[in-house]
What does this fold into?
Amino acid sequence: MMNLSRAVVRSFATTAGRRSAAVPKEQIEKGYFEIRKVQEHFQKKDGKPVFLKGSVVDNVLYRVTVALALVGIGGMGKLFYDLSVPKKE
It folds into this structure.
């Protein structure tokens, strides 16, 4: 019984880095390296925020979103002005 508890504690106490170091590179899935490449692309220090690092489509969607938000804010300003200033007859 004592050996079982030691094995359980040791399995939780062992870091992932030590356990993964024992796995041969041939046994690691191909998708792991593709994910690592994508992670490196998004973590690159190039001064861009992460939501613009994907592609040109990300940049276009960002600009459209900002433009629509500004149009909405402008429309709200016009509405507040129309409701607060009485119309002249």
